[in-house]
Amino acid sequence: MPDDFERMWADLAPVGRSSASGGYFRQPFLSAEVELRAWFAEQAAARDLTLTTDPVGNMAAWWRPAGVSGPGVLTGSHLDSVLDGGAYDGPLGVVSALAAVDVLRARGFVPSRPLGVSVFVEEEGSRFGLACLGSRLASGALAWSDALALADRDGVSLESALDRSGLGGPSYEPWDLASTISCFVELHVEQGRDLVDRGAAVGVGSGIWPHGRYRFDFTGVADHAGTTRMEDRADPMLTYAMTALAANKQARLGGGRATFGRIDVAPNGTNAIPSRVSAWLDARCDSEAALSSLVEEVTRMATERAGRDGTALAVTAESVSPAVGFDPALAAALAADHEEGDWPVIPTAAGHDAGILSVAGVPTAMLFVRNPTGVSHSPDEHASTPDCLVGVSALADVLERLAR
Ligand code: GLV
Ligand code: MN
Ligand code: MN
Ligand code: MN
């Protein structure tokens, strides 16, 4: 089995990798991600799994022995990446799931309920802006018409991207979760240093912090960078800059996280005061009340600053994900009784398709594999092969228990 994992991992290593940074560019429906999804279909076929692909490109490959039916145990993750992302965020869960199927077969195990490996589309929202797009559609949390209208930075709508990929269609039927999925387990690289600090190769997720994405549109007056007196300006870049400082301060004070990782400037010229700055705030806190108050406070400070700068501000909540608590009984069972003792049960401030399915009522668990760098959403993300193999056997064990 280690061979299977390492062979698959080697298959994926070059796909979408930037030779300049070593990071990955695997945006949905662009060449690298299309190649990865074709690879997944081949892996499913090689294992005789029955593949279903829905109109947005979500895939599930089912191991359904003769006479076995009813809701199944689903495991998997995603194959898309953030811009210049790491190798592990997403693909580790998919490759580990396929490797776990191989482990179970090598053990002679035959599931008595269906066992599926899933790939949800656009988990990162790096192309169309909305994280967990595929699982939101599958769970019925997002309407098809709203999804189709999303557009990427070049103005290409999801509808036309799907059309060009041979996907899409006039309607989308959310998955019938109750009759198809009895529980969902997502294995994922850890995106922080908790497991390193605790000396554990694997941890179990307790839940996900509530988080959201908010677009701040600052509008001012374009003018000449040389001839406009400093006191005569209405510069939205200045309001944005002060807002970024305020967000950082506010998050530190409240123990939350606030990041402006993306801005769009018009007209984006060195020698012109901008007419508009759009900036996306990613905010996360350990409670919904703390998240609301962080975002309210940043908005209040930005509005106050805009008043002083003579600029205008509009804030749009593009997506807000509630607090998620994974199935506590499942988490406790996963964590208990290992050779190394109990595994740590830890929360995460990263979003996952597992969170979307959990909110939709599916009993859900997550396994995290130690990341020695603690870095994620960056080329420096890492997990050692021995730790990945511990993750695969942990996943195989839980699947065996759940599908027995
Ligand atoms: C997705 O990985 C997120 O948490 O941003
Ligand atoms: Mn991610
Ligand atoms: Mn991920
Ligand atoms: Mn994620």
TrEMBL record:
UniProt EC number: 3.5.1.87
Domain of life of the native organism: Bacteria
Residue numbers binding Zn(2+) 1: H78, D89, H188
Enzyme class: hydrolase
GO terms for MF: hydrolase activity, acting on carbon-nitrogen (but not peptide) bonds, in linear amidines; metal ion binding; N-carbamoyl-L-amino-acid hydrolase activity
Gene3D superfamilies found in the cross-reference section: 3.30.70.360, Zn peptidases
Positions annotated to bind allantoate: R213, N271, R284
UniProt keyword Metal-binding, yes or no: yes
Residues annotated as binding Zn(2+) 2: D89, E124, H377
Required co-factors: Zn(2+)
Key words, A-Z: Hydrolase, Metal-binding, Zinc
Stated family: Belongs to the peptidase M20 family.
Protein name in UniProt: N-carbamoyl-L-amino-acid hydrolase
